[in-house]
Amino acid sequence: MIKRGLWLIFVECVIIAFAWTFLPTLNVIPLQVIWAIGISMVLLGLIIHLPFKLILVLGLLIVFGHNLLDIPESAPGFKAGFWWDLFHHGYFTPYQYADKHIILMVYPFVAWTGVMMLGYCAGIFFTAAYTQQQRMKIIFRTGLLLIGLFVVVRFINIYGDPHPWQSQKTALLSFFSFMKVQKYPPSLLYLCITIGPALLLLSFVEKIKNRFTNIMLVFGRTAFFYYILHLYLIHGLAVISFL
Question: Which of the four pLDDT bands, split at 50, 70 and 90, describes residue 93?
Answer without folding.
Answer: confident
